[in-house]
Design a protein that fits this description.
Layout lengths: L6 H31 L2 H9 L8 H20 L3 H16 L4 H16 L1 H20 L4 H21 L20 H13 L6 H24 L8 H12 L5 H16 L1 H18 L7 H17 L15 H13 L18 H29 L2 H8 L3 E7 L4 E3 L5 E3 L7 E7 L7 H15 L6 E7 L7 H11 L7 E4 L3 H10 L4 E2 L7 E2 L2 E5 L4 E7 L10 H14 L1
Parallel strand pairs: 4-5, 5-6
Antiparallel strand pairs: 1-10, 2-3, 4-9, 7-8, 9-10
Length: 567
């Protein structure tokens, strides 16, 4: 595994990519000035018409609030943990719960991010920062509408590919943990702003109130429907356990412990209470006249959810946004504010843009375009990495086959397992660290994808991993890893462990090194063995932890599993 957490190397990498993007942005800005500002009629159309009617207040506040949320989202991507952990710690664990078509697309994006993490991060960061600044500026309507249309498109893309549709397609989706996702609300608000609905101040505030009511209704539905599983104690506790395990002030930790203890004793009543609160707020915000104390109450509940289930949107260093709760509260307040502007017109024109605003808007626009250029290059380059293609076409063969060393271990359910017990089946064998947050979850997810792609052939194959951590290798550790990555859904998946001495013997027999430093991550060989039905090693693949390879190993596993079947 690779640990890239030093401040110096990260700072240098970020500066290099920022310099590249700024250079691209300046070139685009120069071309923009050359083409647009030499055309005086274009300049007048975009920037210079005088104001006739002021922008409705609700629309202005919604636009600028959306701009602030985009800027905060961009700034969160400066976290070192996000740059190097987003693909493995966020994308990989969530892939297995998504529709198959979404899995395939996200595997492509995950491979691109793994291959070029700094470039991918800097490009998306600048896109969102530039977009946020453009929304804060009072641009001429003809340009502002295009910015809002792009905000709508980018928010939808981010919602589907970075936020996985807010987890709605996966089991145990809940507003407590952030479903349906903040980016879908960014998209909805952007749509309201560039559509005709947004030009009427009073109508916009009414629509925003209905949007808040819909969110609370969705929250109630997600908690009540049986297949989400929240009438089950363990599933309900799972909403809060992630936050409880994060380092935080003692009084917050104690309060979380109290909540979890209540859940353990009264799960039905607790879930029923959540549903009742959500339904009550949905009914309240469907009304025309809402007392201010309801807004305050909803704010307190949202703050509670923001802490208890969304880690305040920033804890953990891998969040792509600040969470669902803040934007819901912002929309709630905006939908309840009294009418402030005296002018409402569907054809309003903003105030004349000043020189400073022109310069900032041009630079921000060019940063967005340069970010799109680099991000597009990253996704293409990461998907067709030469190393990925080479490894898929040149896996080493072990001539004549070498007998695979037998072992006697226990699986994730505590049942004894030996290699010889799978005679007659192909065994795809790898070594994974159940506490790894780097490449192991990605490789594990590749086994899930390979299992799906093999179809009926998967019944003839046993997918096996052996724990590669000399300290933490309990059965509970293995089960937690399987659940997080989605491996528990594979019937013929075996994650094996034993005593440290037993594991060390297996590592030695298979040529796997495992290093457990006093500080930092456990390091181990990344390797996949393909063992035929007679127990012979037919194919072996090394370097499966390479960032340019991990996102393409599903196809390799499928190919060489089939080759081993007919060998």
């Amino acid at each position: 595994m690779t640990n890239l957490n030093t401040t110096t190397s990260l700072g240098q990498a970020l500066m290099q990519k920022l310099e590249l993007e700024l250079a691209i942005a300046l070139v685009i800005a120069a071309l923009f000035v050359l083409v647009v500002f030499l055309k005086s009629n274009w300049q007048k159309k975009i920037f210079d018409q005088e104001a006739k009617l002021l922008e409705p207040s609700s629309r202005k506040y919604l636009r600028k609030g959306l701009g602030i949320f985009w800027i905060l989202s961009g700034l969160l991507q400066l976290q070192p943990g996000f740059i190097f952990g987003f693909a493995s710690r966020v994308m990989a664990p969530q892939l297995s719960g998504q529709p198959f078509w979404l899995d395939n697309i996200n595997l492509w994006l995950m491979g691109a991010w793994q291959a070029h993490p700094v470039s991918a991060d800097v490009s998306t960061m600048l896109i969102e920062l530039g977009l946020g600044v453009l929304l804060l500026l009072d641009l001429k309507d003809v340009l502002q509408r295009q910015v809002l249309r792009f905000s709508f498109i980018w928010a939808l893309l981010a919602w589907v590919f970075f936020q996985f549709m807010g987890g709605l397609a996966a089991p145990q989706a809940s507003v407590v943990t952030g479903s349906p996702g903040s980016f879908v609300l960014y998209a909805i608000c952007s749509y309201f702003l560039f559509s005709e609905l947004s030009w009427d101040d009073q109508k916009l505030r009414k629509i925003l109130a209905r949007l808040v009511a819909s969110i609370w209704l969705l929250a109630a539905l997600l908690q009540v429907i049986p297949w989400e599983g929240f009438w089950n104690t363990s599933n309900l506790k799972g909403l809060f356990l992630t936050t409880a395990n994060i380092s935080q002030p003692l009084f917050l930790q104690n309060l979380l412990s109290f909540i979890i203890s209540v859940l353990s004793n009264f799960p039905f009543l607790f879930n029923l209470g959540l549903i009742s609160i959500f339904l009550l707020l949905a009914i309240v915000f469907m009304r025309k006249n809402i007392a201010s104390y309801w807004t305050i109450l909803s704010g307190l509940i949202l703050f509670f959810l923001w802490w208890i289930g969304q880690d305040f949107g920033v804890i953990g260093q891998t969040r792509v946004d600040i969470g669902l709760a803040p934007i819901v509260f912002f929309i709630t307040v905006l939908g309840q504010t009294p009418k402030l502007s005296s002018e409402e017109n569907k054809n309003y024109i903003l105030l004349k843009t000043k020189l400073f605003g022109k310069i900032v808007s041009i630079l921000s626009l060019c940063l967005v375009i340069s970010g799109l250029v680099v991000f597009g290059d990253v996704t293409v380059a990461g998907a067709i990495s030469p190393a990925t293609v080479a490894i898929a076409d040149s896996l080493p063969s072990l001539s004549g086959g070498i007998k695979a060393p037998n072992f006697n271990l226990v699986n994730q359910n505590g049942r004894p397992k030996t290699l010889s017990s799978w005679r007659g089946k192909v065994v795809v064998l790898t070594f994974l660290d159940p506490l790894c947050y780097d490449t192991c979850p990605i490789i594990g997810n590749q086994f899930v994808q390979a299992y799906k792609s093999l179809g009926s052939d998967s019944k003839k194959i046993e997918f096996v991993a052996i724990a590669a951590n000399p300290i933490s290798h309990s059965v509970a550790n293995l089960r937690a890893f399987d659940k997080e990555v989605g491996l528990s859904k594979i019937n013929n998946w075996q994650f094996l462990t034993g005593t440290t001495a037993q594991l060390e013997k297996v590592w030695h027999n298979y040529g796997v090194y495992v290093d457990a430093p006093s500080q930092g991550d456990v390091g181990h060989s990344q390797i996949i063995y393909f063992i035929d039905p007679k127990g012979r090693q037919i194919w072996v693949s090394g370097d499966t932890g390479s960032v340019s390879l991990t996102a393409s190993y599903a196809s390799l596993i499928v190919k060489y599993s089939k080759n081993t079947l007919i060998n």
